[in-house]
Design goal:
alpha/beta, Rossmann fold, seven-stranded mixed sheet, 9 strands
Length: 232
């Protein structure tokens, strides 16, 4: 990710970190179901760990859990929780997902939940997926989620943008307005086909793609993919 874009993303998520934490306490069932498939000896990396709502359950299940996030303030929130709960097998890394600070073939599993879609630029998002592939051991598994472009809330917007768009189709600023804040966050909302293609282009074998309606009534608002690094 370019330096300016990285600093802008960090400033954005630092600005909403405390507010974000108060609204994102409950882990998603889809993520817990994936975590429950992992081994007690596994090393798992949570890419874009946010306030730790999936990192802490990963640590309870696995040998070691590593949280990566671009926001220092979110990492501080996680560190506070780690100390309060006296958790010994969590470590944290301040980094962006385009350049993960881990060796090739070094981890057993990766979570990347609602983070990939916050990376600006197709090349950068593709680089992030390739980084997940790079750090996974052969036969390692990853669980990746993104927001759907055609969910109820944004469907009309993107139907209009199809004819008048500028920039990458799927890009949108979504404002964080909790606790009297008004801060734009960059999102790239995915079609299902685009999501699958990016994962395949990185070399992953797709095991399952789930459509989920977490807040939407009619159309899926999230896609969850279970993928594996299979070396032939």
């Amino acid at each position: 990710m370019q330096t300016n874009a990285r600093y802008h993303a960090q400033e954005t998520w630092d600005a909403i970190a405390e507010s974000f934490d108060t609204t994102r306490r409950t882990p998603w069932k889809q993520c817990i179901d994936f975590i429950d498939t992992l081994k007690k000896t596994d090393i798992v990396v949570d890419c874009g760990c946010g306030n730790g709502r999936h990192l802490l359950p990963s640590a309870a299940r696995c040998f070691e859990a590593i949280g990566v996030d671009i926001s220092r303030k979110l990492l501080c929130i996680v560190q506070r929780k780690v100390k309060e709960k006296n958790i010994k097998n969590i470590s944290l890394s301040h980094a962006d997902l385009v350049h993960l600070p881990f060796r090739e073939n070094s981890v057993d599993a990766v979570l990347c939940i609602a983070s990939l879609h916050n990376i600006k630029g197709r090349d950068n998002r593709q680089a992030a997926v390739r980084e997940i592939y790079r750090i996974l051991k052969p036969n390692g598994t990853a669980f990746v989620s993104v927001w759907s472009r055609w969910q109820d809330r944004y469907r009309a917007y993107f139907l209009r943008q199809f004819f008048v768009r500028s920039g990458e189709f799927g890009d949108i600023d979504i404002y964080w307005r909790q606790h009297n804040l008004n801060i734009p966050r960059f999102y790239h909302l995915y079609s299902k086909k685009e999501f699958i293609q990016e994962l395949c282009d990185a070399g992953f074998t797709i095991e399952q793609v789930q459509d989920a309606r977490i807040h939407s009534k009619r159309f899926p608002d999230n896609y969850f993919a279970t993928v594996r690094k299979i070396i032939i």
